[in-house]
Amino acid sequence: MPTSTCDVLVIAASNGQNLQLAERFAAAARAQGQSAEVLDLTAVELPLFTPRSQAAGTPPALAALQARLATASRWVICAPEYNGSIPPVLTSAIAWLSVQGDDFRALFNGRPVVIATHSGGGGTTVLTALRLQLAHLGAHVVGRQLVSNGSTPAKDESIADLITRLHHLRIAQP
Q1: pTM here?
Q2: Is the pLDDT of residue 5 over 60?
Q3: Is residue 173 included in any domain, yes or no?
Q4: Dist CA 15 CA 78 (whole Å)
Q5: Other C-beta atoms lying within 10 Å of the C-beta of residue 146
């Protein structure tokens, strides 16, 4: 995984429509003069987080994932709705990341984040659950969010507006 600093890291919590949405967010950030990368969480080899897996030791891929997330000033998270909530790959990654070090909020605290979804269902419940979790971890989630599906695709103007809003959020310093 690249560890160079980028302005916007777009995290896809599926390798389907949300990965395509993530690519569109990255393109919009680049069009606004920002550096952007896409991270496909489904390609990261992390076991499901459980107390047993934690006791077995830190997964080898976790350090690279944590470093990649830490080097990005801002994040966009594109996640599908799974049974009315956050997809397991994202929940598990957040759990692994939050148990590293003494401060479970360290990676998230003060980080500007946009949340978006392309979902087969409504999509609003995943964004509500994700907003609550990210706020608990101390992230600064942009007030506007993006919900898209097969009948209501994401508009380029909406994606560009969210990137602009993300860029204007102040990054909190520890």
Answers
A1: 0.94
A2: yes
A3: no
A4: 10
A5: 22
Q: Write the pLDDT tens digit of every residue in 56-77.
A: 999 999 999 999 999 999 999 9
% helix, strand, coil for the chain, step of 5: 40, 20, 40
> Strand 140-141 and strand 6-12: pairing?
unpaired
Q: Which domain holds residue 47?
A: 6-168
In a domain, 92, yes or no: yes
CA distances to 18, 26, 90, 142 from 152, in Å: 14, 20, 24, 21
113 closest CA partner among 138, 76, 66: 76
Per residue in 7-22, pLDDT (tens digit) is: 999 999 999 999 999 9
* Contact yes or no for 77/127 (Cβ under 8 A): no
CATH number, residue 69: 3.40.50.360
User: Which letter does DSSP use for residue 47 in this model?
Assistant: P
DSSP secondary structure, 49-78, as one string: P-HHHHHT---HHHHHHHHHHHTEEEEEEE
> What are the strands, taking DSSP E only, across 99-162?
112-118, 140-141, 146-148
What's the CA gap between 27 and 83, in Å, rounded? Answer: 30
Total structural domains in the chain? 1
Residue 151 CB neighbours (<10 A): 5
